[in-house]
Amino acid sequence: MRATLLFAALAVAAAWSPAHAIPRFAARNGNECIQCHVSPSGGGVRNAYGRNVFERTWLPRTGRLTADDYVVKPADADGADGDDAAAPPPPEPVVFDPEINQWMVLGGDLRAAFIYIRPDRGRTPDADPDVVSSFFLMQADLYHAMTLNEHVTTVLDVGAYSGFEAWALFHRKPEPARYDVLVKVGRFMPAFGIREVEHQLFTREGVGLGQTDRDTGIEVTGYAGPMTAMVSLLNGTLGDTGFDSHGSERTRFEKAVVGRLSARGDAGWARGQLGLSAYWNDNGNQANPLLAGSVDPADAAEVGAGVDELRLGGFVTANLGRFTYLADLVWVRDRFASDRLPSLSGYTSYQELSFLPTQGLDVIGTFEFADPDLDLVDNTTMRAGLVVEFFPWPFTELRAMVRRTWSDTAATGGAWDAVFFTHLFM
Q1: 290: which DSSP letter?
Q2: Tens-of-pLDDT digits for all 426 residues of the chain?
Q3: How far is residue 346's CA from residue 294's CA, in Å, rounded to a whole number?
Q4: What are the residues whose beta carbons fall under 8 Å from the beta carbon of 200, sequence distance 6 or more?
Q5: Which residues on adjacent β-strands are paired with residue 396?
Q6: Using an 8 Å Cβ cutoff, are 252 and 244 in contact?
Q7: Going by DSSP bridges, is the β-strand pair 227-234/323-336 parallel, antiparallel, or unpaired?
Q8: Which residues make beta-bridge pairs with 336?
Q9: In the chain, how many H helices and how many E strands?
Q10: What are the b/e assignments for 129-142, b being 16+ CB within 10 Å?
Q11: Contact indicator for 105, 400 with CB cutoff of 8 Å
Q12: Do 39 and 169 contact (CB within 8 A), yes or no?
């Protein structure tokens, strides 16, 4: 049954053959993450186009463009200047400018939320459900980007929680180009699949790509027209660990290798991208978060003897007019050094369909699926959600999300949850 579900998910992804691996804003425009972000894999500080054009003009409701914004009114019949030249320009509104000077930029993300979660039942038959109702500061990150010269940029991301980033980006060409090579060195989020802003997705936090799961190493990105390739050599440490002292055979060169390949296509009336990801971690000391619950508690200490982990993923996006579709599929396998632990494998998937009724407003439907052990029956988790995002002004987002979870294994059964937050981004 599990194999059937896996092939069905692959068939769904294959049916959307023209596609791509970045969130819907980039997918909607048929571009890569670097269109708006300094990092080739997206996330964090925005570049000049992202902060000065997209966030001010194309994203918010108040930034809607009209035909008059694209043409200059002609001169009158008697040769006098047109209306645009005759009338004094309106005063510019006060808008945040992140550029401190020509070589330094500040940015940030602030998310303040209210969260409500109600399980179907209590943890025991006689207990009431444990309801969660709380205000929560989801994110408070401050970004610094400094241009040292036309070929080197440094980025520092410091947040209220762990998971900071600090890296240098070396680029062969001074400006983004269709054919280019970039090298990133430092601590960053590995490029794997779709880097969604919702870090709690089954395909993100559920497989070791959550809010704190940065890694340290080197990443090479190559652009060749519609093709993008990324290859990373990393420590392979999960969580907030900055030094590689893991594994049982530390006499060998034990590192993680990550690869991501994608191809874009644009037919004018439709656009999309198709991509593949792979992650190999040699001799770590933790089971993948997706599979950890399948390890017998009596043998949990055996995991530290060593784990070889393989992750494979496929992703796709497609845009047609006001509709944008994204799908991300991740398969994980852990092989343990201890003879007492069998190999484990499982997979997760994420799908999203968004509708843009008008500029500044997004309506999104989501569906997630997780099977943490392909050898077991009735151990899956599903989650469906409805999201409304509203961007009333530049750098401002209001978001409401309601989700329903169904679980075969949780003692509390399924759950309803709702999240409402304000997001300020710079």
Answers
A1: T
A2: 444 433 333 333 333 333 233 378 888 888 888 888 999 998 889 888 888 888 888 889 886 655 555 444 555 555 554 555 556 666 666 677 888 998 999 999 999 999 999 999 988 888 889 999 999 998 899 999 999 999 999 999 998 876 789 999 999 888 778 899 999 999 999 999 999 888 889 999 999 998 888 899 999 999 999 999 999 999 988 666 666 665 545 556 788 999 999 999 999 999 999 999 999 998 888 899 999 988 988 888 899 888 999 999 999 999 999 999 999 999 999 999 999 999 999 999 999 999 999 999 999 999 999 999 988 878 899 999 999 999 999 999 999 999 999 998 888 889 999 999 999 998
A3: 10
A4: 210
A5: 424
A6: no
A7: unpaired
A8: 307
A9: 4, 16
A10: beeeeeeeebbebb
A11: no
A12: yes
Buried b (16+ CB within 10 A) or exposed e, 271-305: bbbbbebebebbbbbbbbbbbeebbeeeeeebbbb
- Beta strand 179-188 with 270-284 is unpaired
Contact predicate 219/184, CB 8 Å:
yes
User: In which residue are the tokens 């408070």 written?
Assistant: 140
CA pair distance 4, 374, nearest whole angstrom: 10
Which residue has tokens 């632990």? 341
Kindly provide the b/e burial profile for residues 214-228, where b requires at least 16 CB atoms within 10 angstroms of the residue's own CB.
bbbbebbbebeeeeb
User: In the numeric block, which tokens belong to residue 380?
Assistant: 């899956």
End-to-end CA, the chain: 47
Strand ranges in 43-123 using DSSP code E only, listed in sequence order: 104-119
Residue 204: Cβ within 10 Å count:
25
Place of tokens 């290859």: 231
331 DSSP β-pair partners:
312, 347
The Cβ-side half-sphere exposure at 18, using a 13 Å CA radius, reads: 17
Structure tokens at 372: 């943490």
Q: What pTM did the predictor assign?
A: 0.85
Q: How big is the CA angle at 394 (ends 189 and 137), to the nearest 5 degrees?
A: 50
Q: In angstroms, rounded to a whole number, what is the distance separating the alpha carbons of residues 72 and 157?
A: 42
237/214 Cα distance (integer angstroms): 8
